[in-house]
Amino acid sequence: MQDTSLNSAPVKYNKPIIYFLLLWALLNAVQAFTLEIHADEAYYWVYSRFLDWGYYDHPPMVAVFIKAGYSLMHNEFGVRLFTVISTTASLYLMWMMLKRYKVDAVNFILVVSGIFVFHIYGFTTTPDAPLLFFTVLFLYFYQQYIEEDSLKLALILGVVIACLLYSKYHGILLVAFTLASNIKLLRRGSFYGIVLLALVLYAPHILWQVNHDYPSISYHLSERSADDYQLDNTYLYPLGQLIMAGPLIGWFLFYKGFTTKIQDVFTRTLLVNSVGILAFFFLTSFKGEVQLHWTLIAYVPLSMLVLISFAKPGGKPAWFNRLAVINASLILLVRLCIIWGPPFLLKIDAMKSFFGFKDWAHQIKQKAGNNYVIFYEGFQDPSKYNFYNNTTRGLAYDSRHYRRTQYDIWPIEDSLQHKKTYYVLDVWLPGVTTDSINVFAGKWYGGWVDDTRTYQRVEFETLAPKEAVSPGQKIDFDLTVKNPYPFAINFGNKDQKHPVFFEACFFKKTDQITNQKADESFHNISLKPGESTRFKFNVKVPDQPGRYQLIFSLRTEPFFGGRNSKSINITVK
């Protein structure tokens, strides 16, 4: 067995790594500077304007990354600055961990530059960017902690684990599989100190979830789950991972990584994490869609296993270098095309969000002036509008046909009540839309809404039926509603320009099946700030057997009705 102690003499070839990292950082910096903001990045930029311990979709570390970079440069590069820095630092730390295994610098460059998912998060700032950095940082200090049970390393690991969890919830998988690979950690007293410190540092986010009724847990574990199993979620998963690992070399990286001989505790940790994380998301494909990049953290240990294997005599086949060069060249060509923006590339859905929205946002601002702008359905468009106009006056109207987002928590909606607002849609709405906005990014329609009245932040809570119900059966839902606004609200329609309707909506998959209005007594409800009340809604279930989702929705004209309750599963037999 080769010497893997911390005191092993460092291998040569540090200069090629430094040159590679400089080129890596330069390419990412150019891409970060020249490419328009992506919709998700713009959304997380709005996060940074409302710094908090948590958000509906994710923990807050991505907002911290963006806040730090944008405070230095108020443009796309500022949003991506800390991603460019952190991904470069991550690769360097990986090299530092691998030096003790006598890994060759050329092999390192060929493998790392060929992993497609590393390129994606080399410049794009989403929660995956800090997740990648703190994953590598965790492994870096854990490698030392295996051999040195010190208070210093325990404190560092406690902080890093907290940062890992503040980056993305997937970080818990790295911690869990690391423990599974080395159960002897339970014998160390410092291990419990690490756990305690991480929990203490993470407590503000846990309290945020409690105070907001666990929105992230509800979203990730319930709302994102498919009602029925879809085969394509499962069979497309391995195909997608082959691309993420490298379009030409991915298959070989999986083979080589998974067959690497375990040399010590650390290599066992790498193997258990890479296999465990990929297997975990494969299993979740039976419950719903798995986005390809969710497995990002698996490629850190996988690539390291491959490189450790290559360091062994006969570990790397002679043909690999040629294939790896072609693979990296293809990825580089794609990245250069994205910078250049040829017409054929702009027809790809994944690329459209990067082009033409700066002009789009400015044209809408010219029409709306300093008024609030309401966008129909989805966080993407209002976030890009907000970013390019350096404002927070764009609001996502999350309708009953979509899902809830952080826009349903932020106080933006509070400020536009009974004001004149500009309403932007991607369809023509008779009687409302009077303008068309036709730009490179597409065509939108806009119009003015006087005395705007919305109730996006109001949520009705109730218990779902525990048993299946009969076709056409009527059920009394005992609803609880609380006023979340800092001002009094009422659901009366007297002397109101836009009447409000309270409706029970049944959906089957994405199609709305029925729509039932509450009785007139609903309009008598009036609530002071923080005050709550109860209301009984007699709902008739659909006549046809099947599985349905029930959503309670407040609708005011000219909007399509909000999502004012969690989705309630109803089975009709």
UniProtKB/TrEMBL annotation:
Main location (coarse class): membrane
Keyword Cell membrane listed: yes
Taxonomic lineage from the root: Bacteria, Pseudomonadati, Bacteroidota, Sphingobacteriia, Sphingobacteriales
Pfam families (alphabetical): PMT_2
Subcellular location: Cell membrane
Transmembrane segments: 77-96, 108-141, 153-177, 189-208, 235-254, 266-286, 292-311, 323-345
Keywords tagged on the record: Cell membrane, Glycosyltransferase, Membrane, Transferase, Transmembrane, Transmembrane helix
Organism of this sequence: Mucilaginibacter gossypiicola
Domain Glycosyltransferase RgtA/B/C/D-like: 57-208
The protein's name: Dolichyl-phosphate-mannose-protein mannosyltransferase
Gene Ontology biological process terms from the UniProt entry: lipopolysaccharide biosynthetic process
UniProt key word Glycosyltransferase: yes
